Amino acid sequence: MAYEPQTLRPRVSGRYRYKWHSAAFLATVFTIATVALATTIVSSRASSTPLLDNHTMSAAREQATNKLPKQIPLATAGDLQLMLPIFEQQVTAVGFHPIDDSDALTMSPIGRQGNGSFISSLGDMFSQSGPEYYVLGDGGKLGSALRAMVVGAPAGTVVYSPVDGTIAGIKSYQIRGQCPDVEIEIKPQASARLLVVLTHIDQPVASLGQPVRAGVTKLGAVRQLDGCIQQPLGDYTYDNGNNLRVQVETTH
Prior knowledge:
Blueprint lengths: L13 H35 L5 H11 L8 E5 L2 E4 L10 E4 L10 E2 L2 E2 L4 H7 L7 E4 L12 E5 L5 E3 L4 E11 L3 E10 L5 E9 L8 E2 L5 E5 L20 E8 L2
Parallel strand pairs: 3-6, 5-6
Antiparallel strand pairs: 1-2, 1-4, 3-7, 7-14, 8-13, 9-10, 9-12, 10-11, 11-13, 11-14
């Protein structure tokens, strides 16, 4: 039998050995529970966030070419309801921000604010259920923080009309004089005194005077702007925050 040399280690009484084993056991249980909780949180976020990797994004994009978005209301403006304009599995986030436009109506989001205060979160517990949304920084702009809605999605994602109505205008312009973009105006069927304005659109397929249906009629695709301007929605997505922007204006 091999001989083990005696070490200079104080002998621990049975009472303290029991305490050490108990502490080790509790520490082990705590570590396992912490790892399990972290795994659950990551899994939950992964299941609720469509943009995790290129494979998931490609699969969602392929699905989006064949499937229409669900009829989900995102916000109201006046007596108008704005429906989901992008296939739901490609939406990265929904946000609202202010704009310098006195004609733009303040929107009422439908859902729960994801970056609100604790008190506002308590209020959301009793509000109408709906998708999560974020209120974005004002970026130095004036007015209500809820005058423009942005629906995030990867560049190239198909854009559908958010309302029933008729195409009233299509024009090209420059964002801040440096980023080419396309604006599409829709005269909503539900309100003759309002105008729905969509920007950050690429490859427009709509035509002037064309009737459109919410969540059915294709208007174009989400434009890639992350190489041109900083997009605040990127603070809440796994990409740089490319998005479709929607606002509702009063007509004169």
